Amino acid sequence: MPPTSDLATDQAPTRRPMRRRGDLVFSSTALGAGIIILIVLAAVTLFLIVESVPAFTANPDETQFLSGEPFWQYVWPFVFGTLWASIIALVVATPLAIGIALFISHYAPRRLASALGYIIDLLAAIPSVVYGLWGALVFSQILQPFYVWLNENLGWIPFFAGAVSPTGRTILTASLVLAVMILPIMTAITREVFLQTPVLHEEAALALGATRWEMIRMAVFPFARGGMVSGAMLGLGRALGETMAVTMVLSATGAVTFQVLNSNNPTPIPANIALNFGEAYGDGVNVLIATGLILFLVTFAVNALARWIVNRRAEFSGAN
Predict the structure, then answer these.
(1) 241 CB contacts (<8 Å, ≥6 apart)?
(2) SS3 265
(3) Which residues cross the membrane (predicted)?
(4) What range defines the domain where residue 149 resides?
(5) What is the largest CA-CA distance in the chain?
(6) Closest by alpha carbon to 167, among 144, 133, 139, 138?
(7) How crowded is residue 132: how many other Cβ atoms within 10 Å of its Cβ?
């Protein structure tokens, strides 16, 4: 027969942990915020799908903007322009963001690192219309002589072939403006990930005789790989949806070309919507909303790909 004390303990009811009012309020608020995000996302998706149906079912000969061509033939050049401009911006911004973040986190003196980090963060506060004005009126004029030099000396490369735009307002200029716009978010994320590298990992590499660069290559980069990919994908998502800056810089033509120096520029989807929505009517509005749905799906696919890459790399991260 078990002791009385053990029997009493076995029969005693299990008490639930006491929850304070603050914990309950916080958990309820967090749950509500998450639900609101899902509701808003579902509402936006439903709106885009419902309003896009007429664009898929309407007669192309009687629909504004389609001009007798099927919807997919109409939207394809804009999808190309969106991806082309965003990829160029990402290729330019990624090494710059990694280099700046690495300098701030591991090379710069503390005071200089704080000041430089503050300046980089301030770039995110500049409105996109200001970037557009700067790109169209100032940056394009600065780049135009450089474009002429590229065409004269590297014109054998298909990207730099063709007639050079006399204004400098090309897809390359728009992409460089996008690169400047996405630089703050990519730098901020990469910098924070670099700073979270375990100090013991860095000290162990240095103790084994590694130089600072070898330590960064062996200890910091493996740990921060997932964070660097996340920063790049967030920057790509920002570039995919940017409207005003690209609209103000580009002389949009809707062409499909890989040449980046001439006036016959591809047009991203956001710029096409901004340029044409004011004069759209009837089924033309539905056509533009349908192109917005395509952009929504492209952005969703990019984010899903980023999540898959981060999760796949996590098990190989130096953090493990």
Answers:
(1) 270, 295, 299
(2) strand
(3) 24-50, 74-103, 115-134, 171-190, 243-261, 285-306
(4) 24-314
(5) 99
(6) 144
(7) 22
Rounded CA-CA distance 242/295 in Å is 11
pLDDT, one tens digit per residue, over 269-309 is 888 888 888 888 888 888 999 999 999 998 888 888 877 87
pLDDT tier, 315 (very low <50, low <70, confident <90, very high otherwise): low
Given a contact cutoff of 8 angstroms between Cβ atoms, the answer to whether 306 and 86 are in contact is no
Neighbours of 263 (CB within 10 A): 18
Contact between 105 and 224 (Cβ < 8 Å): no
CA 47 to chain centre: 23
Q: How many domains does the chain have?
A: 1
Side chain identity, residue 271: A
Q: What angle do CA 79, 81, 86 make, to 5 degrees?
A: 100
Does 176 have pLDDT greater than 90? yes
Strand partners, 265: 252
- Phi and psi (nearest 5°) for 265? -95, 140
Please say if the pLDDT value at position 35 is more than 90. Answer: yes
| Structural Rg of the chain based on CA atoms | 26
Interval 182-231: pLDDT, tens: 999 999 889 988 988 888 888 888 888 888 888 888 888 888 888 888 88
Cβ-contact 292, 273 below 8 angstroms = yes
Q: Which SS3 state, helix, strand or coil, does residue 123 take?
A: helix
Could you tell me the two tokens for 75? Answer: 């939207």
The answer to whether the CB of 215 falls within 8 A of the CB of 198 is no
For position 88, which CATH number holds? 1.10.3720.10
Element (H, E) at 44: helix 21-57
Which of 127-131, 211-215, 251-255, 311-315 is predicted with the least confidence, judged by mean pLDDT?
A: 311-315
Q: Assess if residue 12 is contained within a domain.
A: no
Asked if the structure places residue 16 within a domain, the reply is no
Identify the helix (H) or strand (E) that includes residue 269: helix 269-276
- Tokens 């929504």 sit on residue: 296
Q: How far apart are CA 277 and CA 287, in angstroms?
A: 10
Does residue 320 lie within any of the structural domains? Answer: no
